[in-house]
Amino acid sequence: MIVIGSGIGGAATAYHLAERGAEVVSVDAPRPGVATEAGAGIVSPWTSRWDNRIYPLAAAAGAYYPELAAALAEQGQHTSYEVVGGMVVSESANELDEAEALVRTRVADAPGAGAASRLDPAQARSLFPPLAPGLGAVHLSGAGRVDGRRIRRALIAAAKQRGARFARATASVRPNVPATKGTSAAGPIGGPGSGAPLTTANGRWRVTAGGEELAADAVVLSAGAWSAAVAERLGLVVPVAPQRGQITHFELPGTDTAAWPVVLPRSSHYLLAFPGGHVVAGATRETGSGFDHRVTAAGQREVLDHALAVAPGLADSTLAETRIGFRPATPDTLPLLGAVDGNPGLWLATGFGPAGLTLAPYAGKLMADLVLGGDVPADLLAPCSPARFG
Q1: HSE-CB of 6 using CA atoms within 13 angstroms
Q2: 6, 189, 297, 388 — which has fewest CB within 10 A?
Q3: What is the per-residue pLDDT across 213-270, written as a single tens digit (0 to 9) for each?
Q4: Distance (Å, whole) CA 353 – CA 327
Q5: The pTM is what?
């Protein structure tokens, strides 16, 4: 099995394939702006305003995190995942009423989500001291957070322990045998597909990785924001485009931030803390950015304005760095998970957008099951079928 890409989606897929005993090679080019390297993840699907089509997958992904973290810890790999609780914050009682109703409905079907409670502003500030004085909260005890860099490295290291190999090179994919006259080996995603079977003794697909030629029974394209470019060389149209995210890191020396909960305003921005006086604020969602790997004045201002409006107590913190990540965004915001019609042995695991650190570890498990012929709950992946784009 060849996995193209080693961001959170590719690393999770490679790990789960290797864990099941498959021979795995991961191929990824060194590029600036890999979303996982910039991201800090909030694992709390129960408090998020997910589209109803994707919420069942998100809830299953949230429930899977403790199991995955424990399995990786048994291999000596630490993900940084920790349950610290989360707070939906607002000055509006109506907004908090709405958030509380949603959370309590979801918690009823999700034991791992923990307990929900309403906090007044003083109680909320006792948990996250920099918070603005007027913000009340809906608190959920089972919410967690994870460092994107650390969980990615843990998955890669654990996959290597299981025998997977990781190559740092640009990948080029092609069928292992040419299509017969009058047929096409590749076409638009979801198209009828008139290609002849591509199975040969040496595998269906061939991947060039740097100067190395690799043959594979299956290829999983999980190249994040670069997935469309890889697919284009194969003659496929994969509707994934880069969406720039700028995420800012603060340092509060001498402050114990290890137990601070995730903070979720009623916007796309957020705050979360890690041990050692480290607080993260994000993030912009810049559609149409291309691969412009810069911290911009407008992007930095947007992040700071939102962060300081919610937590003015961060004003005296040290602005340590701002990271850039290119999220792989699809037109309908849902990921692409599944087989490419008309191309046996070719699979997609990409397009996670801003939800990669929540969804991708579990999606990698489902993809490994699919590729190896296992049973996968059809209802979870149906909304994410690549065929929906025709």
Answers
A1: 27
A2: 297
A3: 999 999 999 999 999 999 998 889 999 999 999 999 999 999 999 999 999 999 889 9
A4: 5
A5: 0.92
The whole-number pLDDT of residue 188 equals: 33
With residue 89 as reference, give the H or E element that holds it. Answer: strand 86-90
| CB contact burial 231-254 (16+ within 10 A = b; e otherwise) | beebebebbbbbbbbbbbbbebee
Q: Which two tokens stand for residue 97?
A: 């009423």
Is residue 184 pLDDT above 90, yes or no? no
23, two tokens: 């021979």
Sorted by sequence, the CB contacts under 8 Å of residue 71 that are 6+ apart come out as none
Determine phi and psi for 48, rounding to 5 degrees. Answer: -85, 150
Enter the DSSP assignment of 34: B
The separation between CA 98 and the C-alpha centre of its own chain, rounded to angstroms, equals 27
Does position 156 have pLDDT exceeding 80, yes or no? yes
pLDDT reading at 64 higher than 50: yes
**Chain-centre distance of CA 146, in angstroms?**
11
* H-state helical runs in the chain: 8-19, 35-38, 55-74, 93-107, 121-127, 148-161, 227-232, 297-310, 356-371, 378-381
- Length, in residues, of the chain: 390
pLDDT at 177: 62
Q: Are 24 and 326 in contact (CB under 8 A)?
A: no
201 pLDDT band, cuts 50/70/90, is: very low
Class of domain 2-35+150-239+332-389: alpha beta
**CATH number at 84-144+241-329:** 3.30.9.10
Q: How far is it, in rounded angstroms, from Cα 197 to Cα 239? A: 25
Q: Which amino acid is at 71?
A: A
Q: Is the pLDDT of residue 111 over 90?
A: no
Cα 101 to Cα 113, 124, 263, 319: the distances in Å are 15, 18, 18, 36
Residues of the chain with CATH 3.50.50.60: 2-35+150-239+332-389
